[in-house]
Every structure is written in structure tokens, then in C-alpha cells.
Amino acid sequence: MHICHVNLASGFSGGERQTLTLIKQQLAMGYQLTVVANPKSPFADEIRALEQCQLVLCKHYTRSHQRSITADCDVVHVHEGRAIYWALLQRLIHGVPYIVTRRIDNPLKRKWLSQLAYTRASTLVGLSSEIVRQITLRHPQANVATIPSSPVQYPVSNTDVDAIKAQFANKFLVIQAANMYAHKGFDVTIGAAKELEKHSPQVHICLLGDGKARAELEKQAQGLGNISFMGKQSAMGNWFAAADLLVHPSYSEGLGSVILEAMATGLPAVGTKAGGIPDIINHETNGYLIPSGDQGEITYAQISVNPLIPASTICSK
């Protein structure tokens, strides 16, 4: 089978990592692949390094619509974003079918071009039950499938893991890893840190990520000694190995791929009852589920899984 993957994002975040994981798996299975990517994105560099893929550089969805790009392709696959319009145009011009994978749980746009792109897709894929629900609300007649992400596997450097552990020696190390947007719930984590500093000094929280909300979050955390802003990380495997707990208190979330990645390494996780997170976490079986925005619940969850804190100090919820 010959598949054309299209990702026109200029950055490199969850969607790009998931697409790259899928591409590597398909190459291992013997698929023939063409990849259309933004030349400004690190994603294009990652594809170039694979060598087995035919790489087509494309700055905008209105460009690079030669018949030759998909002449031998059975299907085009896109991860939402502007790429859906590239796939739509390629189908209208050359008749190549396409599949859309949606990663976010927001309501679908009512813009005519977006609706046309979804209507003309052969199949729509949602990464969680909540995403599928949102898709079917707008496109009830569409062919929709639920296919969760596969966890990205990161390399681990024992030297770097030891360095992280030494930096936070004798601490119960909690991490939150995400782009710093308002819906990711970093404010909830900071609120929990304020409570934890009073009665659980053994807990230290590292916020891994960057984004437009960072400056405001740093103001909220001013004066706290039990929380550190570590910036965006490329070697997440080291943090998963060094940490004792992952928290992911999003207000909305398509799936929560970082939770899958953490669980794959054996790291326990606390997440909210938002979006697709309940598809991953079975409460008190493989993690903790808490209400969105409830800093009291996330504080309790961190204490209750912390072996450094005597059981007698844990307050009832």
C-alpha cells in the first residue's frame, strides 16, 4: 500500500510526533510512503532523516498539487489543521481519497471550507470517544472510527536521569508536560502546589513546557519554592524515568497522549474527567481521575500516592 501523509504545521508538537510514530511503524511494515510537509517544520527534518520516504515540501495548502505526488497513492492521510484543505484540493483535482484524523475535542468549525473538507473525506478518525462524539454531532452521516494514539517511545539516558534525580534529591517528583495554554490546567497545578507547600514539603513539581500562558503562570507561582518551570523538553524519556508522578489536569483534552506515554514507562498518572482522558485512565485501577479545575482533588491525589508522606497525614477528601 502507498500512503501519502500530509502535515503542514510549522511547529513540532503532539500531532507531528504522532504522525511520525505512525510513519515509522508503517515503514517497518513495508508500506510505501510519501510525506507532504512544511519546510519550516522540524517534522520535515525528521522525515528527511528516514530516507525511505518521498518528501514533498509545501508551504501552503494551495500549493504542490501535481498529479505525480499522489499518482501511485491509495489514500491520503491528514492530521486535521490546514492539511485537510490540501487533501480536499488533491481529491477535487486528481480524485485521490483521503482520511482525516482529529486530535482535539472542540466542536467542529461551521466554516464552509472546513465542512466541505470533512464531508468529502472517505473516513473520519477520532482519537477518543469524545472527539468522535463531536464529529458525529456535525457530520452524523459520516464514516467515523475511533483509533487511539500509540504512545511515543523516547530514548532514556541513565546519566541524564541521575542528574534530574540529583537536582531534586529526597523529593517526590511530580511533572506536568504540555504546551502552556489555558486549557491545560497549569493553574490548577500551581494552586495545588500552594497547598502542598504548607503540609507536604517532600513534593516538588516540575512544569515541562512553554507557551503564551507561561508569563502569567510564573506570576501565579511567584514565591513558591516547590515548583520549577523547566521549559520545553525534547528528552521526555529521561523525565518519565526520573519522576514519581505525572499530573495532567486539563479543562479539555482530545486524548492526552502524554498520559499514554507516561503509562507506557510505568509512571503513574493523575488526569481530569475531560475529553478523552477517561478513555485512558480507569480511576484507581491504572491512575486517578479528578474533576476539571479541582485543585483540592489534585492535591489529595498527589499526597495519596506519595510514599514519603505518612498515611496519618492524609486528610479525607
TrEMBL record:
The lineage of its organism: Bacteria, Pseudomonadati, Pseudomonadota, Gammaproteobacteria, Vibrionales. It comes from Salinivibrio proteolyticus. Signal peptide: none annotated. It comes from the Bacteria. This is Glycosyltransferase family 4 protein. InterPro entries: Glyco_trans_4-like_N, Glycosyltransferase_grp1. Residues 13-148 form the Glycosyltransferase subfamily 4-like N-terminal domain.
